[in-house]
Every structure is written in C-alpha cells, then in structure tokens.
Write a structure and sequence with these properties.
Number of strands: 0
Low-confidence stretches: none
Helix content: 55-70%
Oligomer: single chain
Distance between the termini: 55 Å
Order of helices and strands: HHHH
Structural class: mainly alpha
Number of helices: 4
Length: 136
C-alpha cells in the first residue's frame, strides 16, 4: 500500500501530540495547561517533582513560557508545511512548489531545534533555581 500525503502528515501529527500539539486556534495560550503537559520532560532523579506553572518564580516561569512559545512556533510552522506538502500532491510537482516546500520544511525543522535549545536553557535555569529551592 502506498502512503498518501495525509497518511504521512497524520503520522507526524501523532508524534507531535506527544509534546502537546494542538491545531491553531484564536485563543490565547493556556500556559498552565500546556506546562502541565510538558513539565514531565524536566523530571530527574534529583528533581522527581517538577513544580506547577504557578509555583515557579518569575525567572523559571519566563523560561517555561519561552520553551512553550518555541513549541507553539514549531506547531504553526508544521501546519504551514502541511499546506505546502499537500499542494505538491494536489496541484502537481514543479520546481517552484518543491522549493517552497523545502523552505517551509527547513523552517519547521529549525523551529524544532530551537525548541530543543529552549529545553536546554530551561534545564539550566532549573538547575540554578528550582533545584536549589527547598521542596514543599
């Protein structure tokens, strides 16, 4: 069975949902709910309990928002990439559409790398703040 374009996209969506992907809406980000979904990525042996968003002091809270914003940006670029990918299959493959898709895909992949860098940044912030605070 040949994979359809939508089948390939659905596979990527399933993977992104592990990190809280939701299609774009007009609502403002729900930082508390998003953090609840993502905070488990920061649990370690030394930090088995990751604080809730409201429990974070301003420094790690802003780091968490940056981390989540990077994820949201990757989500939006992924959606734009989906549109470009579908156009290749619906409108026909030509150099312009392939190059447009390539640009879109590279932007998405760079955003995923930036999400990873933001995770490293937040881990560093946690090592300087959360890990030094007494556990409640």
């Amino acid at each position: 069975m040949l994979s359809s374009p939508q089948h390939l996209i659905d596979g990527e969506i399933a993977e992104l949902k592990r990190f809280g992907y939701t299609p774009f809406g007009d609502a403002a980000p729900d930082w508390v709910a998003m953090w609840e979904h993502l905070k488990g990525d920061f649990a370690t042996l030394r930090r088995p309990r990751v604080p809730d968003f409201a429990e974070l002091s301003p420094w790690p809270q802003e780091g968490a928002r940056i981390y989540m914003r990077r994820r949201l940006l990757a989500d939006r670029l992924f959606e734009e990439c989906q549109v470009l990918y579908r156009s290749l299959h619906m409108e026909g493959i030509n150099i312009e559409r392939v190059e447009a898709y390539t640009l879109g895909r590279e932007a998405y992949e760079e955003a995923v790398l930036d999400f990873g860098k933001a995770r490293e940044m937040l881990e560093d912030v946690f090592s300087r703040t959360v890990d030094l605070a007494p556990m409640r």
